[in-house]
Amino acid sequence: MVKRFAAHYTCSPYDKLYKLHYIEIDESNRLVSVSPLNQETHSTSFFNGVIILLKEYIQPRALLNLLKDKAAVNPDATVEELLNMNEFGSVSSGDEVNIYILDGIDLLSAKLGSGQPVISRILLLPDKIS
Fold first, then answer.
1. Which one of 29, 46, 76, 109 has the lowest number of neighbouring Cβ atoms within 10 Å?
2. 3-state helix/strand/coil string of the chain
3. Which residues of the chain have pLDDT under 70?
C-alpha cells in the first residue's frame, strides 16, 4: 500500500524544485514516484510548505540549522539551492527516504526569508502505513 503526501513544493538534493506535486511512498519507506498534483488525489495528505526528501537521516533541528546557516551567507538562495550546498546524496525512485516538512517560509519564492521557519519529520512505520 502506498502513502501519498503533497505540499506547495517538493524537493530533494540535486533535483529541481517541484511546485504542487505529490510523492508516493511504499510500505518500506521507499520513494515510488513524484507526480503533478493536477486534481484532488485519493488518500493524499497535504502539508503547507516544502516536502524535503533525503536518503540520510538528520535531526529536524539540525537540518533547519544547516539551511539557515547557508541562507545567512546566500540570502537569495531557494530551498532547492540551499539543499544542494550540503553534502546530501541524490534521491531516486526506489530509494528509502526520510521525509521532512519545512514550513514558515516565503512560499512565493521558496526562500527562507525573514520568517520563522520550522521543520518536522514525517515518521512512517512499516506496520502502521495504510
1. 76
2. CCEEEEEEEEECCCCCCEEEEEEEECCCCEEEEEEECCCCCCCEEEEEEEEEEECCCCCHHHHHHHHHHHHHHCCCCCHHHHHHCCCCCCCCCCCECEEEEEECCECCCCECCCCCCEEEEECCCCCCCC
3. 114, 123-130
In the prediction, which pLDDT does 127 show? 40
Question: How far apart, in whole angstroms, are the C-alpha atoms of residue 1 and residue 124?
Answer: 12
Residue type, 130: S
pTM for the structure as a whole:
0.87
Bridge partners (DSSP) listed for residue 96:
30
